[in-house]
Design brief:
The chain is an alpha/beta fold and 517 residues long. The protein contains 17 helices and 16 strands. An 8-stranded parallel beta barrel has the order 1-2-3-4-5-6-7-8, surrounded by 8 helices. Strands 11-12-13 form a 3-stranded antiparallel sheet. It has a 3-stranded antiparallel sheet with strand order 14-15-16. It is globular, with a radius of gyration of 24 Å. It starts with 5 loop residues before the first strand and ends in an 11-residue tail after the last helix. The structure holds 3-methyl-2-oxobutanoic acid (KIV) and zinc ion (ZN). The site of zinc ion (ZN) has 5 residues, from loops.
């Protein structure tokens, strides 16, 4: 279908390269499942050669995937390609995505290779991929800063060697929409075998133009958009899936293009990602931010009452912003809880179900009705946490505005399986908690960021705290949720310390953009 756009989601690969967005295996599996529900055509599950952890999670995602295509990224090198195939081959529809830089700058300084050698590497690499599968994507890294005619030679060669998708990335977010559209049109028109491949774009957001550049390229013949949920990704991120999908849907009259994204799943997908990586959705974020459908001014409100279309170009329902739905409460039975989690896309074992069931009951004692977001936060807390070196048992805090009586925290926790308790002071209650916990685990991390957000509305809502800490050159993000925001703070801090400890143990993983070719 000439007017069908394929959505290639790279949240689990490029998205995971964004600072603080690291996910564990279970979290990746949950998100992968959601990408299928969302109607993504191809998901890039990771970069298998970068670490054993990445290999395992790509393999597991491939094994569990349904009809969605599962891609793995690899450099144009035999070892990487073989490893990638080993991981993705378990999918019903596997894809190998290989890449090599083609700009003069990258070839000279990053690869230290002559263009003719680069062409030979592309030919050999793509041929090797094609020996495994006929679903091969080749990316010309830094395409937007490459010589146009060289790019045509690269494209022609990659297609001749077996690539069925050609991706032309704006790797550093440098391109401008008209200029980028012109480049894509030029390559399509000047590559003799262009009709044998799908053209794709992958735009970064360094100048805030990732979505605009993606749409401009689709207008002139690209038919695959590489995007991420909420636009997360390396540096300023990638083109955001929800914005590209809704621009094509709302302005179908302009683009004349179709896609298979179930737009009602956009908000649930962004919300799931936000909970998983502990980064709140900014309130002014297009499509999914809290203010995206809020009308503040009197004139706008008046217009809306007369006819919604005066100020609303899409409905909240069309992007899945329904008023939060039913609801588990104190009296819900085990089956209702199981069904609800299944409906939300979580496959829980009996043991996990028991754990969340108890947590649901405890939370329902504090809060009358639990919404979907509460339940998602709960699974995140109870099931998806990485195995903890440090485990918080209880925290008690004394706050005070009387001079000379500093806020005090007392903490009971397990440190490497040994129960210990300690008390201490701070400038404020959060400072007191963090001081005590840091002291107990024998660390002095710098707190780079502390954010608090309420998961639903109402004063009895769960508070969601996210912290980012740094020590010895490693950063880690932690997240905690609880109706008491000080408990949520303590949980978030302990969670970050666990991530930090894990990171130090594994060493920083190899990310493709830093990798030597
Ligand atoms: O930004 C980029 O060029 C990439 C490629 C590996 C596709 O992420
Ligand atoms: Zn990228």
């Amino acid at each position: 279908m000439a007017n069908r756009v394929y959505f290639f989601d790279t949240t689990l690969r490029d998205g995971e390269q964004s600072p603080g967005a690291t996910m564990n295996q279970q979290e990746k599996l949950r998100l992968a499942h959601q990408l299928e529900v969302l109607g993504v055509d191809i998901m890039e599950a990771g970069f298998p050669a970068s670490s054993q952890g990445d290999f395992d999670s790509v393999r597991q995602i491939a094994e569990q995937a349904g009809d969605i295509q599962v891609a793995g990224l690899c450099r144009c090198m035999d070892g990487d390609i073989d490893r990638c195939w080993e991981a993705v081959k378990h999918a019903r529809h596997p894809r190998i995505h290989t890449f090599l830089s083609t700009s003069p700058l990258h070839m000279k300084y990053k690869l230290r290779k002559d263009p003719e050698i680069v062409l030979q590497m592309i030919e050999a690499g793509v041929r090797r991929c094609a020996s495994y599968t006929d679903n091969v994507e080749f990316s010309a890294e830094d395409a937007s800063r490459s010589d146009r005619d060289f790019l045509c030679r690269v494209t022609e060669l990659a297609i001749r060697s077996g690539a069925t998708t050609i991706n032309l990335p704006d790797t550093v977010g440098y391109a401008q929409p008209d200029e980028f559209a012109d480049l894509i049109r030029y390559v399509i028109e000047h590559t003799p075998n262009a009709d044998k491949a799908v053209f794709s774009v992958h735009c970064h957001n360094d100048l805030g133009l990732a979505v605009a550049n993606t749409l401009a390229a689709l207008r002139v013949g690209a038919r695959q958009a590489e995007v991420t949920i909420s636009g997360i990704g390396e540096r300023a991120g990638n083109a955001s899936l929800e914005e590209v999908a809704m621009a094509l849907r709302v302005r179908q009259d302009y683009y004349g293009l179709e896609h298979g994204i179930q737009t009602e799943q956009l908000y649930p997908s962004c919300r799931l990602l936000s909970m998983t990586i502990g980064q709140p959705i900014p309130s002014n974020k297009a499509i999914v931010g809290a203010n995206a459908f809020a009308h503040e001014s009197g004139i706008h409100q008046d217009g809306m009452l007369k006819n919604r279309e005066t100020y609303e170009i899409m409905t909240p329902q069309s992007v899945g912003r329904t008023s939060t739905n039913l609801v588990i409460g104190k009296h819900s039975g085990r089956n209702a809880v199981r069904n609800k989690f299944e409906e939300l896309g979580y496959k829980l074992s009996e043991e996990q179900l028991q754990t969340v069931f108890e947590a649901v009951k405890n939370l329902a004692d504090l809060k009358k009705t639990l919404h979907d977001d509460d339940l998602m936060a709960l699974v995140q807390e109870e099931i998806y946490r990485i195995p903890d070196r440090f485990r918080l048992r209880h925290v008690s805090v004394q706050s005070s505005d009387a001079g000379g009586v500093p806020p005090t925290a007392a903490v009971l926790m397990d440190v490497d399986g040994i129960e210990c308790s300690r008390a201490g002071f701070g400038v404020g209650p959060v400072d007191a908690i963090f001081n005590v916990i840091a002291d107990m685990v024998g660390r002095e991390p710098e707190l780079e960021q502390y954010a608090i957000n309420s998961i639903t509305s109402g004063t009895d809502a769960l508070g969601e705290v996210t912290v980012r800490i740094r020590e010895n050159g490693h950063t880690a993000v932690g997240r905690g949720a609880h109706p008491d925001i000080l408990v949520a703070s303590a949980r978030a801090y302990v969670n970050a310390l666990n991530h930090l400890a894990k990171k130090e143990k594994e060493g920083e993983r190899l990310h493709c953009q830093h990798a030597e070719q």
